[in-house]
Amino acid sequence: MLAQRLLRQVLLSRGTAVRLGSSLAASGDAAAVEQPAKSSPSRTRPKSWKVDGLVVKPDERWNLTPSVMALLERHLHAKPGNPLNLIKQRIVNHFHKTYRKAGNRSPLFTVCDREPRVVSLFDNFDSLLTPEDHVSRRPSDTYYVNADTCLRAHTSAHQHKLMRQGFDNFLVVGDVYRRDEIDRTHYPCFHQMEGVRLYSADELFGKASGEQFGLFASDDEKRTPQKQSELSEDASKVLEIKLKQTLEELCLALFGKGAQIRFVDAYFPFTHPSFEVEVFYEGKWLEVLGCGVMEQKILTSAGVTDKVGWAFGLGLERLAMVLYSIPDIRLFWSEDSGFLSQFADKQPEDNYKYVPISVHPQVYFDLSFWLPDRPSHEMSADVFDLIRSIGGNLVEQVSLVDEFTHKKTGRTSHCYRIVYRSVDRALTKEEVNVIHKQIEKTLVEQYDVQIR
Ligand code: FA5
Ligand code: MG
């Protein structure tokens, strides 16, 4: 049953991919603008490609597929009512509330959620000290546009540029792309939020102690498992504590006191020491983010010479899966209204648990009627209740889709759309019609409406 449902979700998202892919040339910001150079069905390489306001020239390193190009069009984290948009807002709200500039007038962290998704190899790899032979550079791992650019594989790709532009404290949110496996917790496009915080000595140790403790080590200090050679032991330790505190507070704000989280040692080319955070979810530890003390060489090359910092990169799908009990990452790409409608009316701070949707098809019926001359104030609420009490579990969604008052007669009309769906079988139109007629009949009897 579960396997069947998952398969359907994958097919659903693939189906979407194909549909969107075929309309690439017609649509806005990620459009193929010239004839493909190569006619492979899975790798259609355009001569020139416009994406996020940039025009890039694919070459023989191009390995994007039409389905990945379709994912670029989805902008899930920018869609109001999408669970990724909700969790992004919730995390941003938490940071804005908790961390303020001196005087409490404005939020400390700048939010960047519209960075271009095609980045230079320098930004994606070199600026972050990723070794030449690192696996992440392989064409089997990264989507290359040409010899100089790729789809960002992580939001860390924006660290260097933003620091060079003078930003000290920022959050970067967006979709990232990797030629990764596909399973319950991995997808080739997913969403990350990067956090970077830089500190002067005063900011790190406090004004009174800033002069007493230094940020930097003397020349002859060695790199150890605990710290980089450039940083003082004090600076490295305090950064690590502040980073862990920040992430613990975030997990507390998201999941409450009951959640089990742990830090495990990790390796990243751009941080040292490095950690991952895991959350206990459905009987297993699930990795949700990577973090660490930023390599000082990166700050130096970005022109920051008098500060030190930490960074984290969190996986928004992984956090949303835990927060909303979404069992499979592929569901985020679903366009099934049974999934989307569950989040459509939610606020970022709402605690909500996802109810698995049925694999069986939906059957829609509209219900239109004139209201009685003196309708009750709660007419819509009454109608919702009545529909649910007669339709029971077969009613998946109800919404008021149209309402107007007739100019001459002064009568008001309501139209409700009812989506019927069973969790265990495919409904026929005929059997739904019987229930629908029953709803109409009861409405007329109890509320004196006139069916249109
Ligand atoms: C990184 O991407 C680092 N840039 C994170 C980082 C930033 C470390 C700043 C230190 C400082 P990693 O590849 O582990 O690390 O990905 C980070 C998170 O993204 C993971 O913990 C996971 O939550 C999520 N993630 C990674 N791959 C996938 C995938 N294929 N599908 C869904 N989520 C993924
Ligand atoms: Mg990882």
From TrEMBL:
Subcellular location(s) per record: Mitochondrion matrix
Region (Disordered): 29-49
Gene Ontology biological process terms, A to Z: phenylalanyl-tRNA aminoacylation
Pfam families tied to this protein: FDX-ACB (PF03147), tRNA-synt_2d (PF01409)
Domain FDX-ACB: from-to ranges: 358-452
GO molecular function list: ATP binding; phenylalanine-tRNA ligase activity; tRNA binding
Aminoacyl-transfer RNA synthetases class-II family profile domain span: 174-356
Claim: ATP-binding is one of the keywords in the record: yes
Keywords: Acetylation, Aminoacyl-tRNA synthetase, ATP-binding, Ligase, Mitochondrion, Nucleotide-binding, Protein biosynthesis, Transit peptide
Entry keyword Transport: no
Principal location listed in the UniProt entry: mitochondrion
Top enzyme class: ligase
Reactions that this protein is recorded to catalyse: tRNA(Phe) + L-phenylalanine + ATP = L-phenylalanyl-tRNA(Phe) + AMP + diphosphate + H(+)
Enzyme nomenclature, EC number: 6.1.1.20
GO cellular component, one term: mitochondrial matrix
Source domain of life: Eukaryota
InterPro entries per the UniProt record, alphabetical: aa-tRNA-synth_II (IPR006195), aa-tRNA-synth_II/BPL/LPL (IPR045864), Fdx_antiC-bd (IPR005121), Fdx_antiC-bd_sf (IPR036690), Phe-tRNA-synth_IIc_mito (IPR004530), Phenylalanyl-tRNA_Synthase (IPR002319)
Function: Is responsible for the charging of tRNA(Phe) with phenylalanine in mitochondrial translation. To a lesser extent, also catalyzes direct attachment of m-Tyr (an oxidized version of Phe) to tRNA(Phe), thereby opening the way for delivery of the misacylated tRNA to the ribosome and incorporation of ROS-damaged amino acid into proteins.
Subunit organization: Monomer.
Family: Belongs to the class-II aminoacyl-tRNA synthetase family.
Name listed for the protein in its UniProt record: Phenylalanine--tRNA ligase, mitochondrial
Lineage, highest ranks first: Eukaryota, Metazoa, Ecdysozoa, Nematoda, Chromadorea
